[in-house]
Structure formats: C-alpha cells, structure tokens
Write a structure and sequence with these properties.
Layout: E1 5-10, H1 15-25, E2 30-37, E3 47-51, E4 68-71, H2 77-80, H3 83-103, E5 108-112, H4 124-138, E6 143-148, E7 152-153, H5 161-172, E8 184-185, H6 186-196, E9 204-208, H7 209-215
Parallel strand pairs: 1-2, 1-4, 2-3, 4-5, 5-6, 6-9, 7-8
Length: 216
C-alpha cells in the first residue's frame, strides 16, 4: 500500500483554507492534516490545529514529518488597515511559512495568490502578490503550484463590501464578464489545490482563474 502523506496548512480558517482542510481530512490519501492557527477554532473534524505566532514562525516545532504544504494566507487592505499590515500577512507571513516548510523537508508547496499578480504592477495589491510569488519560486522546492483566482465567491465570517458588490455583478451580469475574470467559488480553488497536492510533477506551475475552474 502506498504511503499516506502528511499535510501542513497555513490560512486554514479562511474561505479557501477551511474548505481545503475539510477536503484533505476526508481524503484517504492523507494520514494527518495540521493547520497552523493563531487561535483554536476546531472548525474542521479530523484536522489537528497547532497554535503558532506567525511573527516568530521560524521557531515553530512540528513533530510530524510533513510531505506537502498548502498556503492560503491572505487579507485585504481594508481588513489589514494599512499597507504595512497587509504586507506583513500577504508577504512576510507567507515567506515565513514557506521557509518553515522547506526547513521541515517539504518538497511540494502550493500557494494561493490572485489574478493579476505581478511584481512590476502599478497596483500595490497585485505587486505584493507578484513579489511573494517570486520569493517562493526562489526557494528550492521540487514542486511549486501557484493558484491565481479572480474574485472569490463564498461565505466569509467577516463582511467585505467590495466583494459583496462584485458578487452582485457576478450574479446579474455574468454573461458580460470574460471567463478569465469571472468570480470563482472558494471551494473550487480548494478542490483544485487538493487535486494538485497529489501531483508528482517537479516544476513551477501557475494556474490562472479560468484554468482553476476547468480543473474542477
């Protein structure tokens, strides 16, 4: 029988991460799923939550041997409150998690960024997303999978006015929106990540929103 794998998740309490944890925990492909959290939530049965300080993540000890790491960390400028706070979550915490995963011997890393991610973008949000992609690519994982969803659709614990407007447009004017920009369910992204977590391709692979929808 093929050896079951152990997964490490960051951002496991968010829209994509929570669904990803649920999928991984119910998949016989995985033996153990560990979710790094700031505080206990016990949202998903079968997932082991480990409380950590993301500011000092390099000091974290993971007792379990980890095979694959999934990063769903991310916030918004509005929720973060400032560019500096946004950068801390979407760049610094992601980088710290990736370096921890590599130090643990992880060879496969999967990351969610966003459509339009570009280190040279004139838009701060997209620029930070592009910068973290480049940073992750420079870490010598054998396999890197980057997912760039467009507007995420799904129920969140916090209200995001901009996304609510986007959801309205998506629902009523969907026929006018090019497929690459159409809103995408957070659950679709989670399913695509879980699927590619089983891939043995050793390369850097990027999935735009349109491709993610076609995967699932």
């Amino acid at each position: 029988m093929e050896k079951k794998l152990n997964a490490l998740v960051a951002g496991g309490t968010g829209l994509i991460g929570k669904e990803l944890c649920r999928i991984l925990a119910s998949d016989n492909y995985y033996d153990k799923v560990i979710s790094l959290v700031r505080r206990k939530s016990n949202q998903v049965s079968g997932v082991t939550e480990q409380v950590v300080n993301f500011d000092t993540l390099s000091n974290t000890t993971i007792e379990t041997e980890i095979d694959v790491a999934f990063c769903c960390l991310g916030t918004t400028m509005k929720k973060a409150g400032s560019k500096e706070a946004f950068y801390k979550v979407d760049y610094e915490y992601v980088e710290k998690f990736a370096k921890l995963a590599h130090a643990l011997g992880v060879e496969k890393f999967l990351l969610v960024t966003a459509i339009g991610a570009d280190a040279n973008s004139m838009f701060y949000y997209n620029r930070v997303k592009g910068e973290i992609e480049n940073t992750i690519k420079a870490i010598p994982f054998k396999s890197i999978h980057i997912f760039r969803p467009s507007l995420l659709i799904g129920d969140r614990e916090e209200q995001r006015t901009g996304e609510d407007v986007g959801k309205f447009v998506y629902k009523h004017l969907d026929f006018l929106i090019p497929k690459k920009y159409k809103g995408i369910e957070g659950s679709q992204v989670a399913k695509a990540m879980a699927q590619k977590g089983k891939s043995n391709i050793e390369d850097v692979l990027i999935y735009e929103s349109k491709v993610i929808q076609e995967l699932v």
